């Protein structure tokens, strides 16, 4: 492999992302108003296209471009069906809760999802728990993303995993820390476009190396189970139904998606983003997993000593000319970097905005914007480097780490937001019990590997959280009218003005 030629597009891509980060920093300095609003949600100014792309790029991670297609290579077309579950995520989040969160966020000046939790339940304890849960699960997800990106970069550059990890991590951490949310949104847009381009190149590699679709299908057909939806029982009905919760309905509880709804400009932007985002995420999820299945007609064995995560990198490096391999690699790297940058900026906001700034005024004067900017950059760098250190000993199969973190976040936040936004009786007692009980039960079920007839353990997390939420809300003290009026104005109509005397 001609390594310099392969690395040329990767180098240009890295430089572009860094340049965009510094451009966003200069732009932010010219924006008047609250620094936290600009750094963490881009001053609520994203148009429809950028809003859609940052949502899609955040959701589409290394598991979508490496881990998932690798399992599709192993399990066949059933895994493509499984992946299409995720197509509904944009419509569900934006359509069901997006507008309500944005309206409330503007009323109270919310910058993070924890601000929404604090305002709805009037509980600092619940808000603090929420911030800690975010940081813990986001750190796990970032470590998995770093691992996938570093493996791919190391294979392309012909360097050790550790060297690939350091280079890859430093680029994404620096442009995120410097550019803030606006930089993340702009780089996410670039990454989303690069992902689609890279997907096209990977498809070209498979068709060319496999001798066309007919020859590839004949090769795959040698194992009939790969042509079935249930893949010879590997994808059971209980498993698929539980995946509709994990990757479909319960995406309403993913904070990294919910926070995006605080950043769009107006209703027109939201409506356009719902269309753009659904089309693009459909192409990515169905397309990449279909390519993963078809790649079995080109690569018949997992590289020695590797897992299915090595299938896509091996396909790119072995089956493409050097320059095209470089472009395909940046498509996969883009999926990883866009997710890391989004999780990183949100983890930083949980520490700075939801914890440090919340309590610091009690012990001194609030910091000015200049000091806050320096501290925000420092915290973002530290979190990014901690995740990088965790990734030195990478997880075995990336997609399972990602789905574990998905389930943990959903167990904590799904009912907290869904019932909190649409059920007036929801209160702090119910939300706190649900968040703690849901996360603990989910993690214990995963650790003990409790058998559920093929279902994913998200069923336990969501089920326990629901029971605890209802019990706590019915037994606990209702929220005050001021809070309910903010979240349910339709239930508290303003009194009609009486006509003046004599009319």
Describe this structure in words.
This protein is mainly α and 503 residues long. It has one domain: Sodium/glucose cotransporter. Helix content is 74%, strand content 0%. It has 20 helices and no strands. Helix 2 packs across helix 9. The protein is globular, with a radius of gyration of 23 Å. The N and C termini lie far apart (89 Å). The mean pLDDT is 83.
What keywords describe this structure?
single chain; 503 residues; Sodium/glucose cotransporter
Whole-Å distance between the termini?
89 Å
What is the overall silhouette?
Answer: globular
Beta content comes to under 5%
Q: Overall mean pLDDT score? A: 83
Which CATH class is shown? Mainly Alpha
Evaluate the radius of gyration. Answer: 23 Å
The H-level CATH homologous superfamily, spelled out, is: Sodium/glucose cotransporter
The unreliable regions are: none
The CATH architecture comes to Up-down Bundle
Q: How many structural units, i.e. domains?
A: 1
Count of discrete alpha- or pi-helical segments spanning 4 or more residues: 20
Element pattern in H and E: HHHHHHHHHHHHHHHHHHHH
Helix % is: over 70%
* Number of distinct beta strands: 0
Q: Which fold name is given in CATH as the topology?
A: Sodium/glucose cotransporter
Largest sheet, described in full? none
- The assigned structural class equals mainly alpha
């Amino acid at each position: 492999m001609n390594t310099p030629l392969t690395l040329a597009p990767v180098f240009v891509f890295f430089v572009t992302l860094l340049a965009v980060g510094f451009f966003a920093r200069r732009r932010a300095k010219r924006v008047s108003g609250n620094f936290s609003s600009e750094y963490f949600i881009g001053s609520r100014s994203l148009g429809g296209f950028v809003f859609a792309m940052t949502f899609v790029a955040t959701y589409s991670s290394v598991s979508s471009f490496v881990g998932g297609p690798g399992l599709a290579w192993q399990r066949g077309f059933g895994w493509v069906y499984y992946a299409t579950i995720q197509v509904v995520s944009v419509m569900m989040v934006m359509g069901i809760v997006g507008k309500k969160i944005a309206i409330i966020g503007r009323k109270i000046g919310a910058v993070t999802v924890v601000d929404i939790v604090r305002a709805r339940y009037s509980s600092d304890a619940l808000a603090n728990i929420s911030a800690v849960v975010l940081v813990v699960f986001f750190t796990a997800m970032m470590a998995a993303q770093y691992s996938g990106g570093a493996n791919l970069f190391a294979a392309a550059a012909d360097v050790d995993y550790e060297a690939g990890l350091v280079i890859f991590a430093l680029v994404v951490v620096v442009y995120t820390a410097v550019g803030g949310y606006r930089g993340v949104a702009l780089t996410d847009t670039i990454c989303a476009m690069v992902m689609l381009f890279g997907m096209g190149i990977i498809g070209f590699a498979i068709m060319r190396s496999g001798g066309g679709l007919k020859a590839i299908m004949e090769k795959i057909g040698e194992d009939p189970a790969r042509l079935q939806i249930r893949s010879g029982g590997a994808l059971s009905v209980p498993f698929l139904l539980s995946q509709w919760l994990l990757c479909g309905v319960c995406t309403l509880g993913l904070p990294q998606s919910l926070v995006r709804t605080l950043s769009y400009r107006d209703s027109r932007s939201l409506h356009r983003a719902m269309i753009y985002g659904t089309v693009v995420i459909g192409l990515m999820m169905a397309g990449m997993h279909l390519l993963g299945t078809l790649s079995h007609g080109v690569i018949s064995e997992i590289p020695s000593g590797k897992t299915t995560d090595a299938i896509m990198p091996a396909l790119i490096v072995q089956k493409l000319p050097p320059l095209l391999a470089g472009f395909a690699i940046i498509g996969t790297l883009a999926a990883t970097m866009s997710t890391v940058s989004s999780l990183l900026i949100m983890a930083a906001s949980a520490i700075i905005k939801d914890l440090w700034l919340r309590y610091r005024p009690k012990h001194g004067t609030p910091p000015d914007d200049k000091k806050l900017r320096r501290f925000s950059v420092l915290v973002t760098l530290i979190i990014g480097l901690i995740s990088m250190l965790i990734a030195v000993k990478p997880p075995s199969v990336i997609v399972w780490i990602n789905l574990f973190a998905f389930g943990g976040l959903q167990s904590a936040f799904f009912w907290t937001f869904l019932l909190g936004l649409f059920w007036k009786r929801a209160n702090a007692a119910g939300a706190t019990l649900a968040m703690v009980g849901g996360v603990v039960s989910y993690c214990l079920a995963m650790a003990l590997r409790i058998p559920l007839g093929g279902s994913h353990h998200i069923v336990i997390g969501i089920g326990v959280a629901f029971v605890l939420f209802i019990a706590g809300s019915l037994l606990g003290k209702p929220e005050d009218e001021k809070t309910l009026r903010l979240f349910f104005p339709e239930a508290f109509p303003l009194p009609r003005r009486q006509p003046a005397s004599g009319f």
